[in-house]
């Protein structure tokens, strides 16, 4: 058989210079990520979404171009790229560019120096993406900032990451450059063997990346075959050889990130070495090989537009559009043919490649199994039978200067998202006509309308030979378009109303752009989309060198090991002999009753070891023992009464993670008594079902008589959705049976809860359970009680099988089964005087608890609802509402976030109704002697607030379709001490070094850094003598949860007290010595048998008192009324940090929390199926968090000056959560922008309902861009 003759039976490639071979013993669909982590045992490269949407898995691949033969590095998503496609390639992982042994790469040290890591889970992928970019040389800051759309960070808010990488750009500002000077002298930097200089990443010549000889690859494994083809004829011969077997042509395998394959093909054919498919030629037309990557196409298009503008100026439009497709690593391996194939197989896919090629008038060349070529249009391609055919090339015409081409892609966020609607336009202008008269019929195409809609044919025909700048023609075209746009509605996609309106608006935008100087002045800015300049930030804080290392702005103590991939997380634990993997079987509906569970097919899958149901639990079927906030039992596995879609019904245990996940989908579940779920608070309130509502607290007025003074009555309501925590590390646990019990490595914020729950579930004593936590890859409340669910399930499997078991949830299962931030609503009525002072308030707050009333936050909501205002006339009730969703849980700043946005919404409502300055209304309602008054004046001055208000008013008068808004929000965050936190400090006599273990959990918030600084400060030693050890339940028994921003302070206090005890013991020894060094003192103390280990447990009975944290924020943003897109132009924020224990850490907490809030209010949208309750936004493809280009363009952070906290720990204040509460300022800035748009639309109402999240869709529909208002 020619296709298999003389083919090698194993793939050979290198990772970090070490050769690896892969043969038939490894599944042919194995990803590079799986191989790196599970076979090469290099855990610096992370895994999370497994669909190219988060960037945690990025590595560098050095490849040889099959056409030019040049070697080059590219960043790739290792979770998508097949390991067998690495044959002949060289892979570099984070371990390969720098480490403790060989020295660190400057990228790694720069990340540390600029405090650009928090939890650190995303950091290796970020570094490797930048490492690949460095090879280009002469990167500008704009290019750097544009290259991280596929790298998600939930912790930092991106600003420090971008600064760290922009410091390598050719146009780096002097101040940023100065901050990075001399870093090589402070840390061990990896030196290039060739140049003798610090490694720059440009080592392509030294990397082994050889083009293999004539023998290509053919591997036959038990579950499939892998071929590597060298030519089109080779592909066709393979087609002949495989007969009727299902097959897939493989390039980057990026389609798997869009549509997850249910059944793998029997044959994979790697076509990356087929030069005919990777070449291009340019003459009167452009001929692109179909397997040209999107990155290569984009670079070629930019080049042609610049070098041959008379023929190919339009290709810049295509390149700009490709830049909006996915992200850099996906574009590096994803190909034109691959993208078109997704569209071919899934007509509903809004393919940007398909759209822009059709816009340009491209054709496709298809080769059949007999090597015959056929040229087809793109629409015709969708109807071809492509079985055993190959897309050979794409042909694009030359278009002279009479053609005007444009395209749009409107997304939920700035980058790395599929389109709500995309659009392409190609108009040929008649040079003999007047205005912008068209020559012939134009091209008007849209994606995202419905699977069969492409050309707006009637609109094209209508516009033929017409002057598109004629108002009557414009309206006629919009009317034609209105008639032929029939959007479908498939959740979680946006509504038909939005998509239809958006399509019309995009046609209007393009027509404006044809002759911006010929349209009315106030219309002109409606043509282009929002332009985003390079972002920047400014951080101001005080630091006292006399107090150092306390109050010293230092990087996180773990930053370097995080940037080098040496930091270990739960799933990085070494794999043990006999180790197994567990996965949940989740319900697909709820509420319902399970009639039958049949696991036969799952158990018959090779590699599956066991399946467990509720009756297999030896102890108590609950993971919520009666500890703080957990009032109701939640079951580990449902015994049959399903409460919600996504509830765990069983556990599959298998030999690999992939087998466990696959087997979990094979378990068949029959349901009966399936009910339509009740999902929202408003549904419950409308139903009148009081059994679903529980009272949780209230505020009673102390001055009820003031009600008679009210002159204006204002009524309203405000609804806000939930939020997924989006920890980069999903729920994870490893359980290892040992001789006297079990070692548990859990990604938990609460060790005691984990220990207690496992003890009860297995019926074993607590002292047989050893819980260890080194660090978490993000938490935000997600890993308090919800982590215990996974830990108990994992422990059950390990206990039953007496083998190590690892359980790491996929992002889909994590999102489906775990609770999220409580969605909340408020109904209110307020009576105010002429100055807006509240004389009475009657309000009710509701939270969506999910199916049980656990971890209720509405009590926190009512507590923080007061904020900085006088509550004496308020009557407020707080209620929890039971729905048919997973039990919701704490999420960063739980309750406080919702409480503050509720009261600030009311303040805005009052100001709008009375036509009063919103800041003055707030000041009129302040508590007596509130520091907010002074902070407000300070912020107004430093932010030039009054001047900007006037500038914005003028901007809005001059622009019909671009609007700006500015807003102000104050905050008082009452902070209380609670719980208990241990610290143990040990001094080692040999060298005087110190080890600390505490009861907190390092989640990225910098607790270990603050503890290190406090320890060194109290003992009077240098920071490098102190090391913080992993948390465990032996040194910190019966401890409290790390949450509520308290743990850093509490553990610092406990450490301080333990250190003071040690100093007390050392003092008598010191008195006998003559100015000893630290090491001499410790050596002598050891000789005198002084106990050099001290412990302390912090409680709220210690020398601390509750206090308030104050903050003020101003935000300005700009809105494109014709699309609903927005960008935050500037944020000025002052927060009261007391005397910061660690200023750089606190800056990071403020920025990260604020940006997480931006996601909550502007982007993140949870969508459930109304009939079965299934979460539909359950992965990175359809649930979007803020990206690097969604943060404020100008982000200014300032600590309150001269404000030590006399009642806190060492005069500091907590910072982890309060900043998120102020992020609601963007909602009110947005409302102010939309006020101007609605006024232009003829709406005169002072207030309108505008709920959150204020997604692009919500903004568009609220801005009222009706087509009959589209003027020229």
From TrEMBL:
Q: Which domain of life is it from?
A: Eukaryota
Q: What cofactor does this one take?
A: FAD; Mo-molybdopterin; [2Fe-2S] cluster
Q: Where does the chain bind Mo-molybdopterin? A: 749, 892, 1044
What are the subcellular locations of this protein? Peroxisome
* Database matches in InterPro entries: 2Fe-2S-bd, 2Fe-2S-bd_dom_sf, 2Fe-2S_ferredoxin-like_sf, 2Fe-2S_ferredoxin-type, 2Fe2S_fd_BS, Ald_Oxase/Xan_DH_a/b, Ald_Oxase/Xan_DH_a/b_sf, Ald_Oxase/xanthine_DH-like
User: The 2Fe-2S ferredoxin-type domain covers which part of the protein?
Assistant: 9-97
Name by which UniProt lists this protein: Aldehyde oxidase
